[in-house]
Amino acid sequence: MIQNITDVGSANSIAARVGLRGFGERSVLRFPHSNHTGRATHRIWAAGIPLNQVAGSNTSVFAGLFIHDYHDSIARDVDNLPRFLPTGTGSAMAANRISHFFDLRGASMSIDTGCSTTLVALHQAIQSLRAGEVDMSIVGGSNVMLNPDMFKTMSSLGYAFT
């Protein structure tokens, strides 16, 4: 649905292309962060763990996020900034939204280490489990590149993209 986006200069152009309407917190976070809670729910079900056993548990959440194109593209339209932009698209909210939704009691952090982001998030979860800090950990990552800014910058440094 979001393939071939070329005009990402305004919040309205992004909204039209990804199907957002209204720009309340729910619509602003619908893409890409809201997907994390849904995917976590499905993974918990797939593991055969009843959701009522997850609530209040000593479970950590580590979310890897690298590119912030969606947030940056909406922020370019300064005359139409959504009220919930910081909480709807802020990187820290990716892990915290899952922790809050499931009432988890372990560490909750979003990690950005560049290209290794999700691998580092997985490493942190394993370390947390090995150290006995938590009983279970949820790990995820997302990277959505909507505009050419990163490619232009990296190309100017001599990196090639195919």
Radius of gyration, whole Å: 17 Å
Strand order of the largest sheet: 2-1-3
Total strand segments: 3
Secondary structure tally, helices:
9
Distance between the termini: 22 Å
Low-confidence stretches: 1-29
**How would you spell out the order of helices and strands?**
HHHHEHHHEHEH
How do the helices and strands line up, and which of them pair or pack?
Layout: H1 11-18, H2 25-29, H3 34-46, H4 51-54, E1 59-65, H5 69-75, H6 85-89, H7 92-102, E2 108-111, H8 117-130, E3 136-142, H9 149-156
Parallel strand pairs: 1-2, 1-3
Describe the fold and architecture.
By secondary structure, this protein is mainly α. It has a single domain, classed as Thiolase/Chalcone synthase (Peroxisomal Thiolase, Chain A, domain 1, 3-Layer(aba) Sandwich). Helix content is 46%, strand content 11%. A three-stranded parallel beta sheet has the order 2-1-3, with helices on both faces.
Short summary:
By secondary structure, the chain is mainly alpha-helical.
What tags apply to this protein structure?
11% strand, mainly alpha, Peroxisomal Thiolase, Chain A, domain 1, 9 helices, 162 residues, three-stranded parallel β-sheet
